[in-house]
Amino acid sequence: MKVLLASCASLPTGDGDDDALVGALADVGVDAAWTVWGSGETADLVVLRSTWDYTDRRDEFLAWCASVPVLANPAAVVPWNTDKSYMLDLERLGVPVVPTVLASSGFADWPTGEFVIKPTVGAGSRGALRVAAGDFETAAAHLAGLGGPALVQPYQSAVDAVGETALVYFGGQYSHAFTKGAMLTEDAEYDESGLYIVERLSGAHPTGPQQRVAEDALDAAAEHLGLRRTDFLYARVDLVADASGAPLLLELELVEPSLGFRQTDATAPLRFASAVRAALRARS
């Protein structure tokens, strides 16, 4: 059985977080190697990993995903989850999300407090801007500069103190969690590739309410896409706390998320490898 881990030309073997995966897959009898998406290489399964340059070539990326015989996550997930307006679908399905509106040119219904503008198609926090309360001129200029639709969300101030909690699932089952420090800060820096803001990460132990919201989001996404939760080989659910401390969904990452292997126990790559093996067996 051969598996390809798909990345991009700027990060041909990922960003380092996935370094243990090839060895873990070998341990369970799966031959794995890295590839750059669009290269034409084939395998029994292609797993999307750090394909973070797709935002500038999304149509090409979607066409490539559709051409891959067996892709994880499934190709049907990619168009939906690479457009952050999926948050509106999840809200309609009853998932507690950070209040979200879709904005385009001429938008003027800005939140009254501090808020965030982020492009609907984006990765690594590129193009996201934290806007001071009342600074609607800056907001309008940034939205116009994005050249396309964006999400507008009230900034959740608890992030400054406790960060975001990212819950990771393999094959629909919880694996581990980690915390991401506030990213939209004045001292934020991009990595050498320029593809993502460097994150400040640490391990985490999610609460019951956090796990419930995370699993509600996964179940809702699967239902919306006509899939089962177990069809998601991997998933990362990013949560923040509202003013009362209740968890809210900030993002549901089903295409190319960092999975925080360096922030959790050493057996996590083997859990991922086991999920890959199970996915291969299910398709054989």
UniProtKB/TrEMBL annotation:
Keywords: ATP-binding, Nucleotide-binding. The keyword Cell wall biogenesis/degradation does not apply. PROSITE patterns: ATP_GRASP (PS50975). Residues 87-281 form the ATP-grasp domain. It comes from the Bacteria. The keyword ATP-binding applies. This is ATP-grasp domain-containing protein. It comes from Saccharothrix mutabilis subsp. mutabilis.
